[in-house]
């Protein structure tokens, strides 16, 4: 595949560099003002190794909607991962990197007609359905499709529940759909479910797999030859989380209900692969001291920081993914901790990133880091109010480079070798020359002593007013 100048190269770090040194190098360069990401593809590789170790029988089909960054898709493709696509655009993006259509499942249970026609034209045959009208659409528009019936089995605790929108009742509706599919002459090849994104209820997988076993038996009785079990998503991926308990439940349930290898088991992990791989760096462009104590009007009670990314950009995850973020000041500070809030750059009052957090006093231009920002952030980000979506810098260590440099669709041209932080600071694209996006015009700020203010001291612009006699 030809790599264009619009793509970001994968910078191979030397032994002295890591994600944080790259962030410091870019943020301290003096030319960087916009928010930016650093993507560590080594984190994705490590997640894949964990998946294969914990769930050896389950083939991952990455949920493209979670983060459709091109480098993410290329790395996962190089690792042999399949893809869960929800639209013709996502299908095109995966096919565009040279992936065979057999490695795609069209896992949107309710698809526009034009998207079904497109899937048929592109040879994407495996697709889900959870209602009668969808079966009739598929029969009309893609009669040779391999249909997977999606059932509902909700986790009691999930970051984003999905059952209220998708999935048929496994006891009453699913058998009826199997009979309708038989009447229509469709080819039902399996059963799928999705317990909810960010599942915190591991036993739900056992319940869902048992439902699937019953429906497999019914499908066999009806003359189908089902061979595909899709476990959906729900696997956590943030730093400090683990899929161990979920994997234990799944492995035991598969042994109980599907003990032989004649059933192909897949799943649709999204955040598991990318959540911890992306780190976001934001800078403080404005700041406001709040003094609300009437008994001490000169004392700062709260600090409001305004950063260059917000809920209309990367932090849409706060609204749509129910995520919690933790601000990490890049510069180590000392002094008294004070109640603070962090706000995005737009003119909307809803654009609040962190409502209340204890932080030491920070100055304009300082950077705040947010980890675990890879899931359901960039694909949903907009340029509302004209603020850009952050640029993504991609890094890897030498061992990851050696593993992936010849793994299709990656080639050696995707990588840059050398003292990476120095080149990253310049914002070079894959051609190595385009620096336009990094030539930010400087802002002449007031002297630091005028910008700095101590939360405990009386600011120079506060005065006491007293009544005086009229001067004749």
What features would you describe in this structure?
With 472 residues, the protein is of the alpha/beta class. It folds into two domains: 207 residues, Lyase, Ornithine Decarboxylase, Chain A, domain 1; 233 residues, Alpha-Beta Barrel (TIM Barrel). The protein is 27% helix and 21% strand. It contains 14 helices and 20 strands. Strands 1, 2, 13, 14, 15, 16, 17, 18, 19 and 20 form a ten-stranded mixed β-sheet that branches. An eight-stranded parallel β-sheet has the order 5-4-3-12-11-9-7-6. Strand 4, helix 4 and strand 5 form a beta-alpha-beta unit. Helix 6 packs parallel to helix 7.
Provide a short characterization of the protein structure:
The protein is an alpha/beta fold. The protein is 27% helix and 21% strand. Pathway: Amine and polyamine biosynthesis; putrescine biosynthesis via L-ornithine pathway; putrescine from L-ornithine: step 1/1.
Write down the CATH class of the largest domain: Alpha Beta
The CATH architecture of the largest domain is Alpha-Beta Barrel
CATH topology of the largest domain: TIM Barrel
Distance between the termini: 87 Å
Helices and strands, with pairings:
Elements: E1 10-12, H1 19-27, E2 36-40, H2 41-54, E3 58-63, H3 70-78, E4 82-85, H4 88-95, E5 104-106, H5 113-122, E6 126-129, H6 132-141, E7 146-151, E8 158-160, H7 173-184, E9 187-193, E10 197-199, H8 203-221, E11 228-230, H9 244-257, E12 264-267, H10 271-274, E13 278-290, E14 302-307, H11 317-320, E15 328-329, E16 337-343, E17 352-360, E18 367-370, E19 391-396, H12 398-404, E20 415-417, H13 420-424, H14 448-451
Parallel strand pairs: 1-19, 1-20, 2-19, 3-4, 3-12, 4-5, 6-7, 7-9, 9-11, 11-12, 14-16
Antiparallel strand pairs: 2-13, 8-10, 13-14, 13-18, 15-18, 16-17
Helix pairs in contact: 6-7, 8-9
